[in-house]
Amino acid sequence: MDYITEPVWSSKPFSKRMPTHPEMLRFKRPPPPCCKCLHKDPFPDPFCRGIPHDSVPLPEEEAQELLRNLEGSWKIVPPEGSSHDIMYTTVHVQDDRYTLSGGTRLTFGGEQPNPPCTEHFHFYRGPEKEIYLDYIGTVFTKTDFQNGRVEFNNGLNIPVVWQRGENNSSSPQQQNMPSDIVMVTADKVTAVPGVVQATVVVVS
Fold this sequence. Notes:
By secondary structure, the chain is mainly β.
């Protein structure tokens, strides 16, 4: 999602669509005036949660503390009771970016391994002290760094879990985060049923 260069500001969750990926622009050329049946966008961008207008960037000190807790390798696991497929299977956090890898995807040529995908974090604090991770509104719902588990609801309203692997030597010593970051609970996340997309924490 590094092609998205600024927050999708929103006064109401899931009221705005994600910016169009550059690779999809070729499918969105205006149709000829005579082709009224083609005026409807055949590939509409999905609605995303967005960032509330009164959110502010997370202070640098808090952002660095958060990155220290996230640093290292994680497994991406489906949340209990979730019916969504997991596209990637692992994620590695280094500095202010994370790299998704593993898993497969279906293409016209059949099932293919996923190429690695690297994205950057963009932290914002919302009006209810919730913490957003990116420009489309991926939000923490639960953090348990001591036991190596982090839960999100991504910008498309899909729950995602990162879990530390057993004997993960790349995991830094876990630290407790300030209470105003840790206490981000699921009831602070506005969920709109029906907004779905097979993806992980963020959409590439």
